[in-house]
Amino acid sequence: MTSQPSFTLRAILLLLLFWLSATVFANTPIKVGENERGDQKTGHARVLHDSRGDLDLEQVLLALKAGEFGPLASAGSTGLKTGAYWSHFQLRNPLPRALTLHLEYVDHQLIQLDAFSRPLGDGDFTGVASLSMERPFSHRLVEHNRFVVPVTLAGNETREVLIRFGSRESGYAFPSMRIWSPEQLEAQQLRETTLVGFLFGGFFLMAIFALIAGVVSGKVLFFVYSLYALSKISCWATILGYTHQFFLRDQFHWSLMSSSGALTILLGLTFARMFLQTRQYTRRLDYVILFMTANAGLLLVAAVFQIKILALVTITLALLLYPVVIVAGLVRWRQGQTEAAFFSLAWSFLVMGLFLQAFRDLGLVEHTLFNYYWPPVASFSEMLTIMFAMGFQMRRVYQDKKSTERQYREHLELSKSRLEAEVRVRTRELEQAKRAAELEARTDPLTGILNRRSFLHDASLRLKLAQRKQKASCLFMIDLDHFKRINDTCGHSTGDAVLCQFTDTIRQSIRATDVFGRLGGEEFALLVEEPRDSAHALAERLRNDIAGIEILTGDKPLMLTASIGLAFTEGEATIEDLLMLADGAMYQAKMDGRNRVVGTQGYIRIDDCLR
Questions:
Q1: What Pfam families does its record include (predicted)?
Q2: Does the pLDDT value for residue 472 go beyond 60?
């Protein structure tokens, strides 16, 4: 019975001792010097929550005198709360000379910051800064992407400072200020800006690489990734305050942070859904990702219409559901999509960064420069790893392209003869009436092909047309081997049959657009609009077709061969130039043993013929 009062008394004494130590510590001035590097913070020892956000300075001073200020019950953040927070602290200048300091707000999410100060216990508090995210950037007293309050202390002076941290509706606040000398803050800002510039440059290069890959491959996935990378720049530049500092200096609004974040989430989820092909292979997880996409759309609506509480709720929900994408990636990896493993790793980097930011915002971990910049660094790591996975995707796209090209070539070879036959049929139908009237004047009476005069006329027109289109042309000079011996041995009727059979064979193997004619006797000419390799292949095919002709002349069939000379042009050569060169090549084929194709070296032009 006697131990219970003793225990209660000890508990009361401990609580009293704790309260006294907290009070003494809270009223202890922070000693500052000339070379402050941001290591010291104003702390959370004396903080007041203005739940409605309507207390004025006089009411706050009454609350301060009444002891209503107390320590913040978290690692640094107020959590998602309505209203505003007030912080009270003292700065002590032990030096005999005046000292100017810059008090930097530790985070970027604050909308309004008001600062008041006075010498310790002397006079009224006066306003030293009124900073707002919604005011033009030129109103800031210090050119910095975060709120900075300059404070000047006289020699051996201690000053009291009151700072109001305000958000519209609900929001997160970190009622703490880092203490810097102006020179050290400027140097730190340069270091941070360099880091951010490196990250943004990396995002931009990834966007350019993906855009090039999209143009080359024609895949929409690469274009979405490019937009996703660009949205990262817009998102982090806006969140970290650089958009307000450098771009929208006079027209910035807090809702731009939510809208840029919503756009990035939308593009990220769209890219993830396309990359992992969840619609085709993981339908249930795809429904969840679709819900996340709709939630991101709602976040965008909340940002546009400036519904801050809805924006905070939807972005928190988005963060909580982000690990679902990692699960989808692992499932697709198990299903055989190798690059999905890299995607899951990349998304894990992003989720770790965002969750660390959430823990910091909820006050579960202390706010430091490391965890302040870890989310954008994690986002950069995510994009870099996804780019590596996109390399695998590009390799697959390349293999699919090669397979498609091979199938196309095979199909083209199979359909080539059918297309040529169809062209010949349609051409004959269109020209049948005209051909009947001009038949005797234009054609060789025996073979039915163009005579020499008509060939020269038509070939000249065809050659000029090819020259206007800047296409290569080739003239074939074809001479039947030992034709005079066939006439002398088997008779002219057999020779005529040979010429007709030869002509039919050639006509069956050329296009209706090619110009084919009999120059006289056993000499024939053919003009085709083809480059060197294609024309040479056609000549070899014609030579083989001619060698396959058999003429029955009794017991033993008569075999036929031909010598073919080729002349090529890409310039302003005439048909007579080509005939001369092709004729020389044809005679060279006969001298080399007949039954062969000989082509001129290179392409000729008019200046070559004039020399």
A1: 7TMR-DISM_7TM, 7TMR-DISMED2, GGDEF
A2: yes
Tally of residues, the chain: 611
Alpha helices in 248-307 (DSSP H): 255-276, 278-281, 283-304
- CA–CA separation, 242 and 71 (whole Å): 32
Instruction: Fold for 439-610, please state it.
Output: Alpha-Beta Plaits (3.30.70)
pLDDT digits (tens, 9 = 90+) for 154-194: 999 999 999 999 987 677 889 999 999 999 999 999 999 99
Q: Containing H/E element for 31?
A: strand 30-31
Residue 309 predicted with pLDDT over 90: no
Phi and psi at residue 447, to the nearest 5°: -95, -20
* 527 Cβ contact list (under 8 Å, min separation 6): 459, 462, 463, 473, 474, 475, 476, 514, 515, 516, 575, 578
Packing angle, helices 339-361 and 255-276, rounded to 10: 160
Q: Which helix (H) or strand (E) covers residue 611, if one does?
A: none
**How open is the CA angle 61-67-71, to the nearest 5 degrees?**
105
Name beta bridge partners: 476: 526, 566
User: Which CATH number, 2.60.40.2380, 3.20.20.370, 3.40.190.10, 2.40.300.10, labels domain 25-180?
Assistant: 2.60.40.2380
Residue pLDDT, tens place only, 541-589: 999 999 988 887 766 788 889 999 999 998 888 999 999 999 999 999 9
SS (H, E, C) 349-370: HHHHHHHHHHHHHCCCCCCCHH
> Residue ranges of the domains in the chain?
25-180, 198-405, 439-610
Identify whether the C-beta of residue 133 lies closer than 8 Å to the C-beta of residue 194.
Answer: no
Q: What one-character DSSP code corresponds to residue 29?
A: P
DSSP bridge partners of 186: none
Q: Over the stretch 29-46, which tens digit does the pLDDT of each residue have?
A: 999 999 999 999 997 889
CB 546 within 8 A of CB 502: yes
Mean pLDDT of 404-417: 80
pTM, two decimal places: 0.61
Q: What sign does the CA torsion over 164, 167, 171, 174 have?
A: negative
Question: Sign (positive/negative) of CA torsion 313, 316, 322, 324?
Answer: negative
Q: pLDDT band for 144, please (50, 70, 90 cuts).
A: very high
